[in-house]
Amino acid sequence: MFEIIDSHVSVDVADLEETRKYLEERCGLQKSREVKRPGVTVVWYPGLELWQVADDATPGVVKHVAWQVDDIDAAVQDLKENGVTFATEEIQQIDVDVVDTGEIVRYIFFTMPVGLQGELYEVSPPRD
Question: Which domains does the chain have, with CATH numbers?
Answer without folding.
Answer: 4-124 (3.10.180.10)
